[in-house]
Design goal:
The protein is an all-alpha fold.
Length: 177
């Protein structure tokens, strides 16, 4: 039980510490989400240039092979299960195992090829930080946080959100003087 608790608490504590450091430099949750959105869009554009915008011919062929082999496996298993004789023919089981292997391997290769083109890890990272767990970690990390020396990093000071909020918070001069 203690090992399972440590396995969960250690990464959470590490991420909490990193978020505290991020907040201490003057950045906010919105800055991280904006940065991750920008980085994902830029990276997907690079991947689209390198691998193309949609699935390649090889990916479509592998996906078709996977579906056909999966259907063949299901058919052979159904034949072996509902066969009227009590002992199934060994070749039926061999064919079912072979088609299952082809389905599994072609599906794995097709998925790997798709991941090269789409980078699902970056999308999951953005979804995590944009969602409730990311907001929750930022709120938790901000508890009793003080900035070091009251300095804000130059990048944080030049952030569009920071500049916009600084101008909206500034008092406007009165027309009466």
């Amino acid at each position: 039980m203690a090992a399972a608790l440590a396995a969960v608490a250690t990464p959470v504590a590490f991420v909490w510490w990193r978020v505290r450091r991020f907040l201490a430099t003057g950045y906010a949750w919105e800055d991280l989400v904006d940065l991750l959105q920008f980085e994902l869009a830029r990276h997907l554009e690079e991947l689209a240039f390198t691998y193309g915008g949609g699935p390649t011919r090889m990916e479509r062929v592998l996906r078709t092979v996977a579906y056909v082999a999966l259907g063949g496996t299901a058919a052979w298993v159904a034949l072996a299960t509902y066969h009227l004789e009590s002992v199934p023919d060994p070749t039926e089981l061999l064919v079912a195992a072979a088609t299952a292997t082809v389905a599994l391997l072609s599906a794995i290769v097709a998925r790997l090829r798709t991941e090269h083109r789409t980078d699902p890890g970056a999308g999951r990272r953005l979804a995590f930080w944009r969602g409730r767990p990311g907001r929750w970690l930022f709120r938790l990390a901000a508890i009793r946080l003080t900035r070091r020396d009251g300095l804000v990093s130059r990048a944080a000071a030049e952030s569009p959100r920071r500049v916009a909020s600084a101008f909206t918070a500034a008092p406007t001069p009165s027309p009466n003087g």
